[in-house]
Structure formats: C-alpha cells, structure tokens
C-alpha cells in the first residue's frame, strides 16, 4: 500500500514523464531546412529534378520540409547552367538536419570556353542587386519622410477644449430670460 507521500511522488513522476514525452514529440515533428545554392561565378540557372524544372538563378534559397528525424535526407539532385552553356550537375542531394537549418552548396563552373560571358552575367547581376538595394533604401527613406509629415500634420491639429457652460432661465411676465456663463 502506497501512502499519501508516495502517491504524490508517483503523480509527480508521471507528470514529468508525460511532459518530457510531449516536449520530445514537439521537437520530433517536420523540420525545415533552407538550402542556399551558389555558383562560381554567380548568375547560373538552377534546374531541379529529372524534369529539369527551372527554379531560379544563383544565389538561390530553397526551403525543404524534412521528416522529424535527424537522419540524413536524400533528395533528387539539380543541374546548373551558366549563360555560356557551361553546366554542372549535382546528381544526388543529401541534407543533414543535424548541420542546422541553413545549409549551403557552391557549384564551380567547369573549365570550358565562355568564362568571360559568364563573368559578365555575374557582374550585371551584382549591378542589378545594387540598384535594387538603392531603390529599396530610397523607398524606405521616402516612406519615413511621409510618416514624419503625417505625424507633424496630426500634431498640428488642436483639439478644442470645451468648458462647461452653465445657463439659467427664468420667466418674467410671459417672457423667458436665459443667462449663460
């Protein structure tokens, strides 16, 4: 027979085990891993799976939902093609959840003719990125300026302060007289 103290200890142990099981199951769910694909030089097209579906241009972030285990996850590979026609293939892709939520692969261009064209594309891509960054900064500055103007306009409005008005009326010989102060 278990006494009151033993019963309380047993309940505490059961609650602790249940809490640990719930916590473990919360962490054992699907994991998301972001894979950043770079190329050297950057600006190459990325084509996924056997159908060679176009995914975008390097650097490219792809998000994969993986099973909840920490075991390596095997996925279909991808191919990269530069503007010159040079290409490289990563036939088999393995992601390792234990290596973190952000993983990176860099594909190096093979030593074939057309490197100058690919370098030119990479330079143009950098210039476009710089222009986009400048445009974003300019838009952010314009938005901040507009918000400041709106705040100044809002602050310029004076809210009228109404003072209570007391009035009294009286009737004198058929006439009504009112005084307010």
Strand arrangement across the biggest beta sheet = 3-2-5-6
By CATH reckoning, the class of the domain at 29-137 would read Mainly Beta
Alpha carbon gap, first and last residue:
87 Å
What is the helix/strand order? Answer: HEEEEEEEHEE
Briefly note the structural class of the backbone: alpha+beta
Q: Give the number of DSSP strands.
A: 9
Please, what is the average pLDDT? 82
- How much helix, percentage-wise, in residues? 25-40%
Chain oligomer state: single chain
For the largest beta-sheet, the strand count, sense and barrel status come to: 4 strands, antiparallel
Radius of gyration (CA) equals: 35 Å
Unreliable spans = 6-26
- The number of helices is 2
Question: Which percent range describes the beta-strand content?
Answer: 25-35%
Architecture per CATH nomenclature, i.e. the level-2 architecture of the domain at 29-137: Sandwich
Q: Classify the fold: give the CATH topology of the domain at 29-137.
A: Immunoglobulin-like
Shape descriptor? elongated
Polypeptide structure, described:
The chain is of the alpha+beta class and 181 residues long. It has a domain at 29-137: Immunoglobulin-like, CATH 2.60.40. Helices cover 36% and strands 35% of the residues. The protein has helices spanning 4-27, 115-156; strands at residues 31-40, 45-48, 53-57, 60-66, 73-81, 87-95, 102-108, 167-172, 175-180. The strands form three sheets. It has a four-stranded antiparallel beta sheet with strand order 3-2-5-6, with no helix packed on it. The protein has a three-stranded mixed beta sheet with strand order 4-1-7, with no helix packed on it. A two-stranded antiparallel ribbon has the order 8-9. β5 (73-81) and β6 (87-95) form a beta hairpin. The protein starts with a helix and ends with a strand. Mean pLDDT is 82; it is low at 6-26.
């Amino acid at each position: 027979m278990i006494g009151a103290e033993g019963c309380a200890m047993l309940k505490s142990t059961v609650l602790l085990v249940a809490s640990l099981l719930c916590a473990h199951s919360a962490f054992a769910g699907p994991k998301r891993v972001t894979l950043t694909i770079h190329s050297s030089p950057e600006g190459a097209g990325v084509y996924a799976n056997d159908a060679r579906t176009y995914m975008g241009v390097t650097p490219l972030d792809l998000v994969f939902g993986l099973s909840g285990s920490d075991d390596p996850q095997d996925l279909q590979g991808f191919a990269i093609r530069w503007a010159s026609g040079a290409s490289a293939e990563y036939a088999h892709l393995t992601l390792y959840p234990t290596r973190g939520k952000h993983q990176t692969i860099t594909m190096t261009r093979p030593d074939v003719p057309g490197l100058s064209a690919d370098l030119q594309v990479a330079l143009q891509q950098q210039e476009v990125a710089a222009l986009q960054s400048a445009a974003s900064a300019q838009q952010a500055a314009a938005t901040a300026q507009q918000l400041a103007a709106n705040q100044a306009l809002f602050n310029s409005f004076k809210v009228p302060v109404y003072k209570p008005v007391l009035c009294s009326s009286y009737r004198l010989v058929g006439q009504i007289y009112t005084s307010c102060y």
